[in-house]
Write a structure and sequence with these properties.
Blueprint lengths: L4 H25 L2 H22 L5 H19 L4 H12 L1 H14 L5 H9 L6 H11 L5 H8 L3 H17 L9 H23 L3 E2 L5 H17 L4 H14 L25 H17 L5 H14 L8 H14 L3 H15 L1 H9 L12 H12 L3 H14 L1 E2 H16 L1
Parallel strand pairs: 1-2
Length: 421
């Protein structure tokens, strides 16, 4: 049964607004679980009222106002200490005082954006790097636990445990919600960059659902990336990440057909690529390389994306340079996903027979057991080599592993092509 229009609207609004909602509430109540609970209360209220009263003109503001009121009611009902109650009630009740408090806070901290500020806060040094990224993706990236697990290539239960432990650690830490000063920003940057990148990736290729792309997530990640560059202009990897996202985002319009089906890189109409985004990406890449002679992981990935952006066709792409860059990336940050991408580049440079052993060597890696692109790439190589039965099996396996309906349809279509030969 199709979802009612109002329900679809609420779902879309919640996807877009929940990170900001949690960020704003965390700044007020300074408690992760309370912020999430009040945000959920606002969602429940929207589900009850909007079908009856209509969607408000500014749904995000409506949700925030409702969440604040629910927070105040809860704080009163739970009889919090008089001092804390008075402080929070004052902030929640008086919009003018709240605005003034935010202005004062902006003078004291260097970040200035609620969402970015809370990403830095949640990336506290008391947490492991993996826990910081998992928590901030859950709270502020708007990703589900399952989506985060797939991004990390680990079981969902592992991510759930990381998030619970991270919340507990922050709750027990007296300085958990202090905004870091400039001297502390560099220490937290790797996790912050990781969060922004994974948010962008979820927008660029949705883990699940009916659509391949979630442009709002890409746009939000780009916005945060630009803020990071402005905040720390000498940080080479901030420029590298921004370059990577700009260059990847330049292809968005060509990645799907008019009806939403995925379009593979080889079949994309490159006249649809956004030239201004490419120019911004190449400029950011140049800034990154100027600031550090030793290229980091985001700068290396941006350099790979730049090879695609500069080429007028797949055949005209500098695959030798891409293979070399993936080799450099594998040394800097070895991972099975990098190895798989390297194998794809090898196939374009030397042919599918040279790449197939590299791909098959990854099949026993535990991290790749749930990664649908491994059998998808293997199927592509087998198909090019004329092994159509094996290719069909690989594409069918990949289709069964993905939770994105558009990707599943494409993979099943490719499996069917092999069966018809």
């Amino acid at each position: 049964m199709p979802m009612p229009p109002v329900q679809r609207t609420i779902d879309a609004v919640w996807r877009a607004e929940s990170p900001r909602l949690v960020a704003g509430l965390m700044r007020l109540v300074r408690d992760v679980d309370l912020a999430e609970e009040f945000a959920q209360d606002a969602l429940v209220a929207a589900l009850e009222r909007w079908p009856r009263d209509g969607v408000p003109d500014n749904p995000g503001a409506w949700l925030m106002t409702t969440a604040k009121h629910r927070a105040l009611d809860r704080l009163r009902r739970d009889r919090m200490s008089a001092d804390k109650h008075a402080q929070l009630a004052h902030e929640l009740d008086d919009a003018h005082e709240l605005a003034h408090a935010r202005e004062q806070a902006a003078l004291d901290d260097e970040i200035g954006d609620d969402l970015l500020r809370l990403i830095f806060v949640a990336c506290h040094p008391s947490l492991s790097l993996q826990a910081r990224v998992a928590l901030t993706l859950r709270l502020l990236g708007g990703l589900t636990t399952d989506e985060i697990a797939r991004a990390f290539l680990v079981p969902e239960a592992t991510i759930a445990q990381r998030i619970v432990r991270a919340k507990r650690t922050l709750a027990d830490g007296k300085a958990a919600y202090e905004v870091p000063r400039r001297a502390e920003l560099d220490e937290r940057m790797p996790a912050v960059l990781g969060v922004v990148y994974l948010v962008f990736n979820e927008g660029y290729g949705a883990t699940a659902g009916d659509d391949l792309l979630r442009p709002a997530l890409c746009n939000e990640a780009l916005r945060l990336g630009r803020l990071l560059v402005g905040l720390l202009p000498q940080h080479a990897e901030a420029h590298g990440l921004l370059a990577l996202m700009e260059l990847q985002a330049s292809r968005m319009a060509a990645r799907t057909s008019s009806s939403g089906e995925p379009v593979l890189l080889a079949d994309q109409d490159r006249t649809q690529w956004d030239r201004r985004a490419i120019e911004r990406g190449l400029a950011a890449l140049e800034h990154a390389q100027i600031r550090s002679p030793r290229r980091g992981t985001y700068t290396l990935q941006a350099a790979i994306a730049a090879c695609h952006a500069r080429a007028d066709s797949v055949e005209g792409t500098d695959w030798a340079r891409i293979v070399a860059l993936y080799g450099e990336l594998a040394e800097a940050a070895p991972s099975p996903v990098v190895a798989l991408n390297h194998a794809v580049a090898v196939s374009m440079l030397l042919g599918p027979a040279a790449a197939l052993p590299l791909v098959e060597a990854l099949q026993d890696d535990p991290a790749m057991k749930r990664y649908h692109l491994l059998p998808a790439v293997r199927g592509d190589l087998l198909q090019k080599l004329g092994h159509h039965d094996e290719a069909r099996e690989a594409f069918t396996l990949a289709a069964g592993m993905t939770r994105n309906e558009r990707e599943r349809a494409l993979l099943l279509s490719r499996a069917g092509q092999g069966a018809r030969r």
